[in-house]
Amino acid sequence: MAEKDVEISFKKDTVSQLLSNFFKEDKTKLSGDATRLMVEMLKVFVQEAAVRSQKQAESEDCDQVDIEHFEKILPQLVCGSTGSRNVFVLLISACLHSLIFSPDYR
User: What biological-process terms (Gene Ontology) are attached (predicted)?
Assistant: First the structure.
């Protein structure tokens, strides 16, 4: 597989808006520090998911990572099923899905 050094980044406003969609009360606010922390967590999580997905694809003798490879490694990344983890997984899944199917990424 071809190695690409791609810098993973997420817009703070986008992450903040996505997280706000999961708040139960409209009055709940997200601080700048919390948003920056979530952006960093997303970067680490996405990098780990990408590496594991690539290894999964290689183990299946595929030369391209597909969404099915990500779906196979997802249980490794998520332990338990608490509400906050579900939100995080949904957010990560949406980000990875957009990366995998982004025309600029290929």
Answer: DNA repair; kinetochore assembly; replication fork processing; resolution of meiotic recombination intermediates
Residue 73 has pLDDT above 60, yes or no: yes
Q: Residue 66 in contact with residue 57, Cβ under 8 Å?
A: yes
Helices (H), 1-106: 12-20, 32-59, 67-77, 83-100
Does the structure show a pLDDT above 50 at 57? yes
Decide: 52 and 65 in contact? Cβ < 8 Å. no
Rounded distance between C-alpha atoms, residue 85 and residue 103, angstroms: 29
pTM: 0.63
Separation of first and last alpha carbons in the chain: 13
